[in-house]
Amino acid sequence: MQKIQLGTSSLQVTPICLGTMTFGEQVDEPTSHAILNRSLERGINFIDTAEMYSVPTRQETYGATETIIGNWFEKNPGARNKLVLATKVAGPSRGMPWVRAGEGMTAADIIASCNNSLKRLKTDVIDLYQIHWPERNVPAFGQLYYDPTKERTVTSIHEQLEAFDQLVKAGKVRYIGLSNETPYGVHEFIRLAEQHNLPRVATVQNVYCLISRHLENGLDETMKRLNVSLLAYSPLGFGLLTGKYDESGAEGPDAPKLARLGKFESVRKGRWGREEALVAARKYNALARANGMTPTQMALAFCYTKWQVASTIIGVTSIAQLDEDVDAWGTTLSPEVLAQIDAIRKTDRDPAH
């Protein structure tokens, strides 16, 4: 895998990134360490985590994923220098007071969260420090519409950038990124950074998969023109695009109970649990099989080969899943298959947006 430069930064990463949000909930520490070892063996030099992980978030597991990764770094002292490490500062609480108190995300919150992440990760520097979701009110995580009456901004984008500037100048953060962002947010972060000589956003980490391509309705143009790289998360649609739920659905008697949709009610109640998302996923999965691919191969190949995507974040619970996802690299989709994918989107749209 040829390495990709992230935005205007000097970070060079593999086009596959290991996502770690299952570590500490679905995956215990020994298995997490085995997955990290295998990922490094397979040539992946990019891992992504967050202060609020593992997921689904609970007070008891807050920070668990970073702690597991930090323990791995401690056991494998040479590993840290081989990897680009990305983590995230949580935005406003969203009903999780153990993650963030109050309605906003202050400059002090950003700095304190970074210091705490560094301690858990047992490292001196974070290569890519991202805002997990915007401080301002935006439609995210399955919400469809922007509602200006819900605006409760506490900290301006300029103030947030000044906090990141402190961290960069202190040598604790190399580059910054955003997540779950909108075109307006990306433009405003870039505009203010250039106007005031503050850190420039290198990446945006947003959902992007066959059943959620809303990014292609404008955000992709913003990122292309501003030279900001996309880190695509949930390329397998929380498992819907693996085919594991094709027969049973997420709540059927034969649903895979240990998979996220089968195990966690909070996930089933969100965008990935929508019936229309399962209906669309079944169509894509059938298309893959009809063309000699597994659903996983086609869904990952879609992300791996799209011009919009710099690096695709894969989340796994076993070494076997990791190998399957990495082995899908190099799979190509014919113009005919891509046309059929677009035909499904034309009728089913983006049901997991």
TrEMBL record:
Family matches, as InterPro entries: AKR (IPR020471), AKR_Detox_Biosynth (IPR050523), NAD(P)_OxRdtase_dom_sf (IPR036812), NADP_OxRdtase_dom (IPR023210)
Keywords noted in UniProt: Oxidoreductase
Residue span(s) of domain NADP-dependent oxidoreductase: 15-345
Gene Ontology MF: a single term: oxidoreductase activity
Database matches in CDD domains: AKR_Tas-like (cd19094)
Name of this chain's protein: Aldo/keto reductase
Source organism (scientific name): Caenimonas koreensis DSM 17982
UniProt lineage: Bacteria, Pseudomonadati, Pseudomonadota, Betaproteobacteria, Burkholderiales
